[in-house]
Write a structure and sequence with these properties.
This protein is an all-alpha fold. It folds into 2 domains: 7-355, no CATH class; 382-497, no CATH class. The protein has helices at 7-24, 36-43, 59-70, 78-103, 113-122, 125-132, 139-157, 167-183, 193-200, 207-236, 250-259, 261-265, 277-298, 303-320, 322-325, 338-355, 359-403, 422-425, 445-457, 460-464, 474-478, 493-497, and strands at residues 410-414, 467-471, 488-492. The chain has a 3-stranded parallel beta sheet.
Length: 500
Amino acid sequence: MAIGLQRKDGYLLAALFLVVLLVFYPVFFSEYIYTDEVIQLWNYRPGSGFTMFAEQGRWLTEWLMSKSFASVDSIHGIIYIRVFALMMWLLCIPIWYIIVKRIVAGAPSYTYLPFFTCLYLVTGLPFAITVQWASCIELPIANTAGLLSGAIWYLAIRDKKKLEIPVLAALGSLAAGLISLSAYQSGFGCYLLPFLFHYTSGYTSRKDLVVIKGLAFYFLIYAVYFVLFKTYLSVRQVASDPRTGLYFNPADKLQFFFSHPLKRAFWFNIIVNEENSLARAIYKVLLIGWMVMAFVRYGIKQWLGALKYIAVVLLIFITSYLPSMVVKENYASNRTMLAVFMCVWFVCAEMTAYLLKNNLARKITDISVFIIMLIAGWYNYNKQFLTPVREEYTAIKNYVHQHYNKNITTVYFIKPAEDGFKKKYHVQTSMDEFGVPSTFFEWVPEPLMQQMVFEITGDRTTAEKLVVKHWPDMESFSGSGESMAGNVLLVNVPALIDGK
């Protein structure tokens, strides 16, 4: 799969690394803690036997999390885990670049598609989530291994006869696919990117056969993984996580897919209010516009070919999100959707590159896309996420350090609302990943207070004995009848966020 990189490619890769550093440089010194990180920091102690991911079939993630969080014992130490996640992505970026360069080789219209695909990757929401949230450090491995699995199989079968089966390529693709699935199942959807590009490209042949063989092997890898997963549960005699239970309701799932994941993918890297009528209209315009352009590209006389093109592309979109389409939970978090995001990007970028013939128009488009992606990536990480979360943590930390004493045995914790940042920071929420206070989630207050007390006292036993009670607002607390005794510390997070 090797392909020679030219000096220009080296410059473009250097530019990608520079973009990453410009956007994410605060990760090297920003101290904060976000939601699940505090559970993992508090519980993944050496010899604790604590697990979160093995029962979900994410064995590689379990190993990564246990080793990473067991190596630090402070909130400040999580910085090193986030930096590690960033370094993993920096190692993966050249792999993405080389694979895309390899699959678009020979098509003059796609000269800069590898660069802009990787630029979209590094300024995208799933990439930012990996860097900003140590609970998602497995995403570089899951998504890159998924892409590598698909690329190995695709490059092996692209020019083969119908009955030829490249055994070594099949084994390599299977190995990479199982690594992806054992890290984060949704990441395996990136396997389909080479086949999607092959089908949509104006410079490839044998489209149906290549896609069929690609999808067949895709489902085969899932089948092998499913057998391994069930075997693991049987041997360990543990129940699977309820979130992994299979759920078959095609109508419900298709409605969910088109109304949430696909809609967000067509917003690209922009975080908007999902209920905003203008945002919904933009999604519909872009989706229908792409379909119209398909008919323009094929011509009216080949309308059946245009319909087939649209149907196959939509099928690949849906199939790339397969793990979330076969479980009951409908939760379109950005971290699960890198494959869908990249599929939509590939289709739109390929269509634009194919139809845009004027060199000046191409240059203007390229420059505009670069600027928009850079600004969006920087804003999403630094303003939508980092600034409010870091200030929330700093305010709580300073308050606890100032008011905690050895007589405190109980903490009354007032949680902020889900949109608790909106008034002060004017940010838009996106699932549980952007614009949401860390302490909004009910599983955060207890381990957070225990961890802070541990860092103040250096005594884990004292911290473990701390009783933490929490309420969604001051009104609920006032009506609870709880009294403020001398051994109680009241932590009113909404007031701390507002600087009161």
